Amino acid sequence: MTNCAFCKIIAGQIPSTRIYxxxxxxxxxxxxxxxxxxxxxAVKPHVENVFGLDDTLAGAVFRAxxxxxxxxxxxxxxxxxSIYQANGPAAGQTVFHLHIHVVPRWDADGMNLTxxxxxxxxxxxxxxxxxIRAAL
Length: 136
Ligand code: AMP
Ligand code: ZN
What we know:
Blueprint: H1 5-11, E1 18-21, E2 25-29, E3 39-43, H2 55-76, E4 80-84, E5 99-105, H3 122-135
Antiparallel strand pairs: 1-2, 2-3, 3-5, 4-5
Bound molecules: adenosine monophosphate (AMP) and zinc ion (ZN).
Adenosine monophosphate binds near residues 16 and 94.
């Protein structure tokens, strides 16, 4: 994709600080650094979001993410680690080339994802599950 920042990074057309790469993935430092050690793991082909991943690419990107997460953990010894991935603007995606955030976390570090639980009754869970199972 000609106008995709991450395609340009993967092709070496714009600068990045690279961490790890294999045939299908590239990990590089997130330019925004929510916390020191914040890394992005991107797939090499231009795939917009999780719905465009085949099983091979899905496996590859998570394998690389776990490898990078272990390294960030060893390097920064954070109190926690968030693995975060957004699909679509409503979910907070701003770069439309699939990537997974590896973010070392600290108590009260200011990174917040509000989690507005609804705690519906069991019948509702069953109703939702029926729909999802039918789509698998
Ligand atoms: P998302 O909201 O999940 O789409 O996140 C996109 C991330 O890409 C943000 O955390 C940005 O800081 C990061 N980002 C955008 N452009 C670059 C770039 N050229 N190099 C490294 N990270 C970038
Ligand atoms: Zn791209």
